[in-house]
Prior knowledge:
With 506 residues, the protein is α/β, with parallel strands linked by helices.
Amino acid sequence: MKKILPMDGYNQQLIEYVHPNDWVNPQPADIYDLVVIGAGTAGLVVAAGAAGLGLGLKVALIERHLMGGDCLNFGCVPSKTIIRSSRIVGEIWRGQELGIGAGEIEIDFGTIMERMRRIRSQISHHDSAARFKSLGVDVFLGDGQFTSNDAVTVGKQVLKFKKAVIATGARAATPQIPGLAEVGYLTNETVFSLVECPRRLAVIGGGPVGCELAQTLQRLGCEVVLLHRSSHILNKEDREAAEILQQVLIKEGVNLILDCQLQQVTATDKGKTITYHSNDRSGTVTVDEILLSTGRTPNLESLNLAQVGVDYDAKGVRVNDYLQTTNPRIYAAGDVCMKWQFTHAADAAARIVIKNTLFSPFGLGKSKLSSLVMPWVTYTDPEIAHVGLSADDAQKQGIQFDTIKILMSSVDRAITDGETDGFVKIIHRRGSDEILGATIVTSHAGDIISEVTTAMVNKIGLSKLSSVIHPYPTQADCIKKAADAYRRTLLTPRTKKILGLLTKFS
């Protein structure tokens, strides 16, 4: 089982909820309507949803490590807790501009991490083995393995099923760098076990998680160097959005090394030395700890998928648009099979699986993964939020579009807040107010993006958004400004002339 350290009272409580040492697996039912392997977000939602339908379904849930998966234990919950602390530091740094001088900042890293462990343990009862047992789910702690088209084993117990769901998630990928394994490194599964702040930290990988933790730990007292293989961070985001964050990181003291190929890692008397090649030059950097953030690897080991005809590759289990694997009785959801590796995406996929496994056989229709409108957020400061197509996506698909861009420097509340480094960019179909996608960069972009997502899901165009009254002053007024900008494009020269005359004589 993955270790949760330090083993203080908070982590002991966490373990008691999500993998109790005295747990006794139940006697398996004769046959289960649904067997779910993996108790991360996708697995928990499938199991709870199926058991809670009131249809008397027999549901089994198998977890080999910690219920709650990465989100609770090694992802969303712990990371956002320490990000909250780091935001205070950012506010104090900006305080001088707002007339507030705070002097030298005292950062108690141990207390910050203790708070994280406390909050994680407080939340963990929602994902506990005992709670799911109370919902009517048979919870099995141990390794699940397919042994036939209708059976999974957990230890010596055999669970027969009508349908099964693979929701085993993913873990941090480990790049093949000579010396890395010998020197040692942190991942998202171990970084939250720190009780002391490393003086010098190397973050390998400039994707969302790497950027979030690089900024957070720099603010909390680390000297952070971020090594990234591409010419700019956040390769999958809007280039202008990534550039804004890149400049913020540089301003805050993060040492960015881009276009970087790592050669080797060695242990020296000064620490862990990374040798790299960047822009035709070789260099070294020496740190106390190395944090990997180089992508994810699906958890497929020991499932015995070949035995049951489930195809998979290095990216995960192969599924169709209904989240059905190549074995029609077996489905998958979450990070183990999806490009959207977010908690909210796993939740949405789990709901699709519930419908397609339990209701569609009775002619109640199927749901498709491709029908989802999926937002996501990088929780840096400023945040970067996105939904739908980017300009590059639209061009690749041959879609004609126009772009409306509103700078946060034109939004009054952003000006008063001193948070003008950002924008909202909305892409709409040419000749139409249909919203194809949006990117927002600002302090609370993750909250603002939901208005655009709601509009897209309900096919509300920019014209109707323009009629929505937004409280003044709020940063969400950037959406109203974008919608108004679209409406102004509808004015013909003749209409503008008439309006000009009316204005003149009014």
